[in-house]
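This part of the workshop introduces the protein records we will be handling. To make this concrete, we reproduce a full record directly below.
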Amino acid sequence: MPQRRSSATARVAAVASATPMTAAAVEQLIEERVSAALASHETLRNSNNGHGDGSHNSDTRIRGIVCTPRECTYKDFLNCKPLTFKGTEGVVVLSQWFKKMESLFHISNYAVENQVKFVTCTFLRNALTWWNSHIKTVTQGVAYAIDWKALKKMMTVKYCPRGEIKKLEIELWNLKVKGTDVTSYTLRFQELALMCGRMFHEESEEVEKYVG
């Protein structure tokens, strides 16, 4: 096969060096190059086969491999730079913390049973004290057996008292643009809307309030 390819290459070179290039010469050049390419492909296919029968090539074997995503570890979680939560930042920051954690879950291959275990490692100060007290009350195994939804509910009850939510709802209802600073207005509106979801039953109502 190498001898055939060398011969084809020599003939291609001979045709290419001929002057002038007639239509017949161009056609012959194309034909020789195609033949050389096919010969090279055939040699490569047989060498990858291992049996020389051409029944299975490397492409087929590659397509048959099913890649399973690697489960993310705690180190992978830390590499995503998750937000910490101290328990003193207020309901808006807590809402942002929720959204950040859920985005990490969405883009990464975290096992469901590890979600609570990983996110509670971001607790600091008051939040960490609260969580440690909870663990002592129900034992560590039970504490980490809850799912993310249950943890969110516990934290909402703890750090989003009804009185605080009411204040935010009043602020959202009276929120107005100061001068021409639409950017600041938009940012604050989005923050408040996250925590005052019960004010808007439909997305159209939220849009209407924003525009109004």
About this structure: The chain has three domains: 2-63, 74-160, 164-211. The chain has twelve helices and no strands. Residues 2-63 form one domain.
